[in-house]
């Protein structure tokens, strides 16, 4: 079990988050953002103002993952959370993703969210789909051919959901 | 059949769009935006920069409806469109919604989108759900209890989709 500390990130954490963000998005196989998204745009996307909150996961005070937790809808739908997760590719498979996800679920519950919804889980990303299922998420539906995968062509995007 | 003209809206059209936008959102039964959303925020939401495009539907040069057409995802998912529609409540049931939706589907196809996806169709809004079904949309899935309806409590939000 990895000794992971997950905390709310501030502006001072961005320099440690950006290399992770960039590597994950540049791979082009898990997020819809353009693989060459520049740093300033990435920061605006990943560290938006409240009620969104950015989390950072650390091992021995080194950033190894990050999450973004926010309402999936504004106003009359803001009791359902949306979240995104990124793990340093060098740490993949080491339990960081699961630990970060569990901490984010706790944080979402603490903030009063009633459920969590993912809008765009790449169906070819079977590791992520398996992780979400093991954490209680169900596939609500799949948008066919909604993602241009770098090696698999057009693949579906799952919408996943669980109550909190 | 209503004699509807649908065209791309510019900044000069906002004063005619805002009263429709405000009445629709203030009702709190079809959109998640806060019913008291102020005008400046509404304008930013409904007239975002390209690649989004705002449409206005007119009868005898009077605005009777409006649509927002944009990518549902950025980057690697931007071949799927998202759209929102609003009709002057005084014109409800007169064919404006259908005419505007049909014109928006044509515009989406013209812009190269491969499909259209709605993220948050209030399941209690049976007229809208029926209209989308009649236009070839299918319910991909439903997020349970995702919308705080003013009279019906927590109701689901449908995700709907059709190819173009």
Automatic annotation (TrEMBL), chains A, B:
Record protein name field? L-amino acid N-acyltransferase YncA
To which species is this protein native? Pseudonocardia oroxyli
Q: GO molecular function: any one? A: acyltransferase activity, transferring groups other than amino-acyl groups
UniProt keywords (A-Z) are: Acyltransferase, Transferase
InterPro entries reported for this sequence: Acyl_CoA_acyltransferase, GNAT_dom, Mito_N-acetyltransferase
At the top level, the lineage of the source is Bacteria
Q: Matching SUPFAM superfamilies, A to Z?
A: Acyl-CoA N-acyltransferases (Nat)
From the broadest rank down, the organism's phylogenetic lineage runs: Bacteria, Bacillati, Actinomycetota, Actinomycetes, Pseudonocardiales
Domain annotation N-acetyltransferase: ranges: 4-164
Pfam families in the record: Acetyltransf_1 (PF00583)
CDD domains assigned to the protein according to its UniProt record, in alphabetical order: NAT_SF
């Amino acid at each position: 079990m990895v000794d992971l500390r997950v905390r709310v990130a501030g502006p001072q954490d961005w320099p440690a988050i950006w290399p992770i963000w960039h590597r994950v998005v540049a791979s082009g196989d898990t997020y819809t953002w353009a693989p060459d998204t520049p740093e300033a745009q990435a920061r605006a996307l990943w560290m938006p103002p409240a009620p969104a909150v950015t989390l950072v996961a650390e091992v021995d005070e080194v950033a190894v993952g990050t999450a973004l937790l926010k309402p999936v809808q504004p106003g009359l739908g803001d009791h359902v959370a949306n979240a995104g997760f990124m793990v340093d590719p060098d740490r993949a498979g080491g339990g960081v993703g699961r630990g970060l996800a569990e901490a984010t679920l706790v944080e979402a519950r603490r903030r009063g969210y009633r459920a969590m919804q993912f809008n765009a889980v790449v169906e070819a990303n079977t590791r992520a789909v398996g992780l979400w299922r093991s954490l209680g998420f169900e596939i609500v539906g799949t948008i066919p051919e909604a993602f241009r995968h770098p090696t698999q062509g057009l693949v579906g995007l799952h919408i996943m959901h669980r109550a909190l």
